[in-house]
Specification:
The chain is α+β, with helices and mostly antiparallel strands. About 35% of the residues lie in helices and about 15% in strands. The protein folds into 2 domains: about 160 residues, 3-Layer(aba) Sandwich (NADH Oxidase), CATH 3.40.109; about 110 residues, no CATH class. The strands form 4 sheets. The chain has a 4-stranded antiparallel beta sheet with strand order 1-2-7-4, sandwiched between helices. The protein starts with a helix and ends with a helix. This is Epoxyqueuosine reductase. Keywords: 4Fe-4S, Cobalamin, Cobalt, Cytoplasm, Iron, Iron-sulfur, Metal-binding, Oxidoreductase, Queuosine biosynthesis, tRNA processing.
Length: about 300
């Protein structure tokens, strides 16, 4: 009785805090993901993201992150915007339109942990938002929140894929959800549309070819061999999600902190080319775009304007 009641309490509070979905899975070693992750790393498909090699054992086993962990609570937060950038513009991935999601989601997760302590009692655990060795997508899939699409993002029949994934790993036993079936079928829209052919086979993305990797993670000069293939993306890339049929079910988020600075929506290519450091700081004050810094964004814009 307690297990079911605790699970209902947590899911109801997650919904109240604005999360679109909440699912729970049993904490333990990710047996299916281990060989896949190892093969992906051995094939060097993570490019310069050397942090992906770190903490291999922790990445696959949440009980090594939280002593006595029993449950992984996975949560989805919608970021699909109501308004998008103008057509003749250099593009920014929709997840980076507003305030950096790490800050927004961390606050919500801490509130959820406070609620658990107040309503359930002494529960030990940690909150995670894409900044620790946790395989977010694997846990979201195990928790029944969606299936892994051929573009390697989690997909839901109800809401598509424009959402963030976060977790609580806690030492509390809960009722566990079941994974859902794969509904990609014979569709290859994402594979066919990728401007740089980064989806080398269904469910496998080669980071070395991905526009998001180039424009955010790569610190070197952008490779000239890819000139003309970036489809005007200056930070991140949404092509594989934009063409996915399931994303016709995406609905605008209701999180004011994810609303973009007005200039982000109105700037033309010419205005982006003339971007100053002051305007960069204004538009991206608390944005994830700061990750690439002003010089990084200018590098990306210069690369696109040479095309």
């Amino acid at each position: 009785m307690n297990t079911a009641h605790h699970t209902q309490l947590i899911k109801a509070e997650a919904k109240r805090l604005g999360f679109m979905s909440c699912g729970v899975s049993k904490a333990g070693f990710l047996e299916e993901e281990a060989p896949r992750l190892e093969a992906w790393l051995n094939a060097q498909k993570h490019g310069q993201m050397s942090y992906m090699e770190n903490h291999f054992d922790k990445r696959l086993d949440p009980t090594k992150l939280v002593d006595g962990a029993k449950s992984v609570v996975s949560l989805l937060l919608n970021y699909y915007p109501e308004e998008k950038q103008r057509e003749d513009s250099y593009k920014i991935s929709k997840y980076a339109y507003g305030t950096d999601y790490h800050f927004v989601i961390k606050d919500k997760l801490r509130n959820l942990m406070d609620f658990i302590h107040a309503e359930i009692g002494e529960v030990d655990g940690r909150v995670f938002v894409d900044s620790a060795p946790v395989m977010d997508k694997a846990w979201a899939a195990k928790s029944g929140l969606g299936w892994m699409g051929k573009h390697s993002n989690i997909l839901s029949k109800q809401v598509g894929s424009f959402f963030f994934i976060a977790e609580l790993i806690i030492d509390l036993e809960l009722e566990y959800d079941q994974p859902v079936t794969d509904h990609c079928g014979s569709c290859t829209a994402c594979i066919d549309a990728c401007p740089t052919q980064a989806i080398t086979e269904p469910y496998v993305v080669d980071g070395n070819k991905c526009i998001s990797y180039f424009t955010i993670e790569l610190k070197d000069q952008l490779p000239g061999s890819y000139a003309g293939q970036f489809d005007d993306w200056m930070f991140g890339c949404d092509v594989c999600q934009d063409v996915c049929p399931w994303n016709r079910f995406s609905k605008p988020h209701r999180e004011p902190l994810f609303d973009p600075h007005p200039l982000l929506l109105t700037f033309s290519k010419k205005e982006w080319q003339e971007l100053t450091k002051e305007v960069f700081q204004e538009i991206f004050k608390k944005s994830a775009v700061k990750r690439t810094k002003f010089d990084g964004l200018k590098r990306n814009i210069a690369f696109l304007s040479e095309e």
